[in-house]
Fold this sequence. Notes:
The structure is a homodimer of 457-residue chains. The longest helix of chain A has 20 residues, at 437-456. In chain A, the strands form four sheets. In chain A, strands 1, 2, 3, 6, 7, 8, 15, 16 and 17 form a nine-stranded mixed beta sheet that branches. Chain A has helices at residues 3-9, 11-22, 34-51, 122-138, 160-166, 215-218, 225-236, 257-264, 270-278, 291-297, 337-351, 376-389, 403-412, 437-456; strands at residues 54-59, 68-73, 81-87, 107-109, 112-114, 145-151, 176-179, 191-196, 198-207, 213-214, 300-309, 318-319, 322-331, 357-366, 369-370, 394-398, 416-419, 434-436. In chain A, helix 2 crosses helix 4 (122-138). Chain A is an alpha+beta fold and 457 residues long. Chain A has 14 helices and 18 strands.
Amino acid sequence: xxxxxxxxxxxxxxxxxxxxxxxxxxxxxxxxxxxxxxxxxxxxxxxxxxxxxxxxxxxxxxxxxxxxxxxxxxxxxxxxxxxxxxxxxxxxxxxxxxxxxxxxxxxxxxxxxxxxxxxxxxxxxxxxxxxxxxxxxxxxxxxxxxxxxxxxxxxxxxxxxxxxxxxxxxxxxxxxxxxxxxxxxxxxxxxxxxxxxxxxxxxxxxxxxxxxxxxxxxxxxxxxxxxxxxxxxxxxxxxxxxxxxxxxxxxxxxxxxxxxxxxxxxxxxxxxxxxxxxxxxxxxxxxxxxxxxxxxxxxxxxxxxxxxxxxxxxxxxxxxxxxxxxxxxxxxxxxxxxxxxxxxxxxxxxxxxxxxxxxxxxxxxxxxxxxxxxxxxxxxxxxxxxxxxxxxxxxxxxxxxxxxxxxxxxxxxxxxxxxxxxxxxxxxxxxxxxxxxxxxxxxxxxxxxxxxxxxxx
Amino acid sequence: xxxxxxxxxxxxxxxxxxxxxxxxxxxxxxxxxxxxxxxxxxxxxxxxxxxxxxxxxxxxxxxxxxxxxxxxxxxxxxxxxxxxxxxxxxxxxxxxxxxxxxxxxxxxxxxxxxxxxxxxxxxxxxxxxxxxxxxxxxxxxxxxxxxxxxxxxxxxxxxxxxxxxxxxxxxxxxxxxxxxxxxxxxxxxxxxxxxxxxxxxxxxxxxxxxxxxxxxxxxxxxxxxxxxxxxxxxxxxxxxxxxxxxxxxxxxxxxxxxxxxxxxxxxxxxxxxxxxxxxxxxxxxxxxxxxxxxxxxxxxxxxxxxxxxxxxxxxxxxxxxxxxxxxxxxxxxxxxxxxxxxxxxxxxxxxxxxxxxxxxxxxxxxxxxxxxxxxxxxxxxxxxxxxxxxxxxxxxxxxxxxxxxxxxxxxxxxxxxxxxxxxxxxxxxxxxxxxxxxxxxxxxxxxxxxxxxxxxx
Lengths: 457, 457
């Protein structure tokens, strides 16, 4: 029985295991879910132990931090060592009532499994675990050395993994990292992601009067912090989509001609993207750039949430004392988070109208990254995917941020291979998140093949 | 015994009666307080009957509406008929723990009586009742004809009084209305309010994508409804405070030179207003207008509340599908609510960026009003106040809106005299609401004197 045959024979068992894991609401943004977050960590640590990984342990951080999970198998001397990364925490499922089936009762419909975390990232992390399990169960050994590092604060930008990796512990020494937390560009199209945007996530609070005021008695003379926030947000980004922060674009470089040309050959229709993925009246953004360039290779500024004053039913004529907004910037390679933060703070200050005090808190910050396609780890990954999916692998970038890639680059000095099996319509962070089950199974086979190829070299 | 002597002799009895009324928590915003709301209505209807008013009745509205109270005394043929208005419902007292004495256990400290509704508006409504009682008890008759109309939905913007007044019932025919629900400009300074701003209260909803999106995957190409709202709000009002809705100021007239000159003579310090009432870093608003002109005679546009996206703790990188804001405009005399609404809707539409759909709902709408100081009803009121307080009466406007004044103007075609005895620090709608007892007693005497003067003319 080849390893691929083994994988195929185990599909039902793999799915059953994933469903068990997905039932645990390990929502890292909600403090009241701490017990479930830990439960999800223990679940996967137990699996690692059971399949034969060694030194499996929950690495505890400071008070309040969620554990990292470590496990290793190092009995392939002379062979490369690959660090396998995933995360066991998930986004909150709100709004609950928009889910067709409950977010923590995984439900298969057609070829898709619906649940919060199905694709991001329990399903993809489970691919790594099951690929490794296959070798250990079917052959008793792995073709290369592997180390798992699975975290539980990815969705909250937690600091635990950063402080751990920054300490450069000997056990993390490796030749490359494999992260399974990205997408395929299209169904059936094997994809490697070679660039990610960075992220600076902030909260702006605006304060005006010492207490809420009656707009009849004070309107026209008292400062209004919601209006101030609106002015600031409108001032940070022009109507044409260009960010209006002085100096912000200084380090931005366009992708190479070859990379842009490759993107033009991807099966991508702006019309279909608008209609099937976004569902709005129109796409927006900077003129002179394709949509793919806008979402992969241009910096952005987005408001994620805003609140202030009276938002109940009916009419209350209050001028609130305070209002706040969550605002992030996506950064592209060469941009420096600390510099962007400085420029942003200065711009918010300059845009703050008289009578209002603003404070800016930075909640998360990570640089963009770019991996060379010349790396042998990338080349082998492309080959493995091609063999399993039967099509030529494409190289894309992703607009999101996976801070751990920057950490591996900076502290471990290794390249990261971003081999992902999500699909563009997986609705990450949205109601009705799902994972395409054929991708789950082909993903396991692809990672298995990848380990084989690395072992043969 | 003159009527004034009678009033002075009865002060303790008047206070005792008011305290009984204030003990009833007639909070119209809380459905569970319906019994107490009715109890407060029955309390005052009983008093009207006992002092000799006729045709006293509770006028029931549709299911769920609170009763109006009517009562009349019409035995002064050839004399004017005055409609006396007040309201028996009160605001909720929250937060309870900020009250120095319980909100429904009226407590006198120094010259002030502390209770929810003490000033707004039971104390002031009781002034009207006790002024009339004085004549009927001391002289057996009134100098003019009076009709009471007391409502129980003022604090919730209820529709009962509007539908009743709009029917123009014969029993509401009168020559003028007297509303006792406003403030004196400063302690001891007799005040008539001659203008109120109107109000158009709206909710704007902005919708972008069909569902929440991940800002990493879509940021830079997907429309963001919070950003759109920010652009719309920033576009509706310039940074210098001027409303940027085309045509909005067309009908706005400045107060007369005489009125502006009179305002300049009021005991008002912008510095003290900023420090003691607003508590912000600076006052704001249109250049070239005093603060009093800004809050009394200029239209405004204010955001009262805004919500959208993720506003919990931490960082969630969502581009929300929708966001909404509550926005009102205060209108000044001559502006037409329907025209302002039309201009506003057009401006919101024009400011809506590509990819976003906005809808505007109008939740409330009432015109401004202005009473000529030449009216004999105003002249007599000014004279009455001067005789009781021993100082010249000042004419002010108020920035708020009292919709009933517009109803009396529109349906009964009578002017309304706004004779109020509240003080700027009475903390209406806030904890520790109080009524200055000397104003309670002088208020009764003032209304009594007013009825006499109207009877003499």
